[in-house]
Amino acid sequence: MSGKHFSVWPILIDMVTSVLIIIILYFLLEKILNREQLELIVINKKKEVFEAAFINKFNQEVKVDSSILISKGIDHVQITFRDTLIFRSASYFMEEKALKTIKACAQQIKSSGDSIGLRLIRIEGHTDSDPFKGKIDCRLRSTNEDCDDLLKDNWDLSSLRALGILKQFVKCQIDSTILSSSGYSSQKPLTQDSSARGKAQNRRVDIKIYFTRFSDQIEP
Q: Rounded to whole angstroms, how far apart are CA atoms 119 and 198?
């Protein structure tokens, strides 16, 4: 048997050092996480204050009534237009009064976006479940050629309505690179109520506004 003395102290010192490092890292990580959580709370509070101010200002400037709804999503503000406010039945042609409403809406969005930054604006058209039976308003065409082929069903109607509002936003100098439009036909109803009142609720255009500082993750 060897006469050499075996010391456990180096091993104990290494173990204690390792434990101390783990403890220090744990407390540092905890402080970092707490700081991030605090920052998130502050951001969310600023978001709530801004959204409340935006909604209040929008209500004043655009003169919101029962045809316009404005609400807050998880990461966006949503403006909903009832179809009768902007469009005639089975048409995507906008009357002059409707254009004024759209322009006022766009100006308010742009004004708020200039102060905090706009990340994305989604314009989504929706119809009720009744099959499309109307005819396109030929005043939209530059010639007298037959234009029934432009509008075949609710997919076309919802898409063209959303696109029409997008084009008005572009005319109001909202950056076209942050704009998108889509039509969902009757696939995303607000209610399953098949009465005339329920169908009227489902015929709408939703405008979802994502502001830069508050929209790290955008819902699909």
A: 33
